[in-house]
TrEMBL record:
Keywords: ATP-binding, Cytoplasm, Kinase, Nucleotide-binding, Transferase. The gene is cmk. It is an enzyme of class 2 (transferase). The keyword Kinase applies. The lineage of its organism: Bacteria, Bacillati, Actinomycetota, Actinomycetes, Pseudonocardiales. It comes from Amycolatopsis arida. GO terms for molecular function: ATP binding; CMP kinase activity; dCMP kinase activity. Belongs to the cytidylate kinase family. Type 1 subfamily. Its main location: cytoplasm. Residues 167-176 have a biased composition (Low complexity). InterPro entries: Cytidylate_kin, Cytidylate_kinase_dom, P-loop_NTPase. It catalyses: CMP + ATP = CDP + ADP; dCMP + ATP = dCDP + ADP. One of its GO terms (cellular component) is cytosol. This is Cytidylate kinase. CDD domains: CMPK (cd02020). Its EC number is 2.7.4.25.
Length: 240
């Protein structure tokens, strides 16, 4: 282990930048907790779809969101996602949920409810004296604006689409490259133009372009950044 994280690392960015992989590996490397806020929005989206509600109907979506019983784990090695008593870790990654999550995430009441829950989880982890790596699209700007380190991951759109396509293929959800690219572009457009907490880097975030970097190289860079911020005593090296 390279060091023990103290405080919060906020990791934001669009899909295909390696955000989830980097966040989980960084948390594991530094003996920290991990929170995937995107999974929380996906759980609510799944609940909306299961209820037969139109994701574009903000009022109906908000009603579902207020009743949702969701659970997410904070262990990087085994992230947990539950809707009620159901393990929905696979279900929330389906194309159907992916197509609807931006609309559900744009509902202000959904964001209010989930941001409050996310802050509770973060506070609980910090109260135990540990650190936490939090990933999403509004962590540095909204959820944890006081985070000791804010990072905004970016990558060339073509690279991000290729990565997303590879992930989908590995999960048995193969799609034509042009379809994947259109999906990525659509998600970017919706997330960056929504009225509630649009996707954008915090003013004090460090932008890291992952287009030509390996996961290990990104981890080394983030460890160095965290060390400079005094969040840990981290010796740079490849991920374990």
């Amino acid at each position: 282990m390279a060091g023990a994280l103290r405080g919060v690392v906020a990791l934001d960015g669009p899909s295909g930048t390696g955000k989830t992989t980097v966040a989980r590996k960084l948390a594991a490397k530094l003996g920290a907790s991990y929170l995937d806020t995107g999974a929380m929005y996906r759980i609510v989206t799944l609940a909306v779809l299961r209820a037969g509600v139109d994701p574009a109907d903000s009022a109906a979506v908000a009603t579902v969101a207020r009743k949702v019983e969701l659970t997410v784990g904070t262990t990087p090695h085994r992230p947990l996602a539950r809707l009620g008593d159901d393990d929905v870790g696979v279900d929330i990654r389906t194309d159907r949920v992916t197509a609807a999550v931006s609309a559900v995430s744009a509902v202000p009441e959904v964001r209010r409810l989930l941001v409050a829950r996310q802050r509770e989880i973060i506070a609980g982890e910090l109260a135990g004296g540990g650190g936490i790596v939090v990933e999403g699209r509004d962590i540095g700007t909204v959820v944890a604006p006081d985070a000791g380190l804010k990072v905004f991951l970016t990558a060339d759109p073509a690279v991000r689409a290729a990565r997303r396509g590879a992930q989908d293929s590995a999960a048995g959800r193969a799609a034509a490259p042009e379809t994947v690219r259109a999906s990525v572009d659509r998600r970017d457009r919706l997330d960056s133009t929504r009225a509630a907490s649009p996707l954008r880097p915090a003013e004090d975030a460090v932008e890291v372009d992952t287009s030509e970097l390996t996961i290990d190289q990104v981890l080394v860079a983030l460890c160095e950044l965290a060390s400079r911020r005094g969040l840990l005593n981290c010796t740079a090296g490849s991920a374990s």
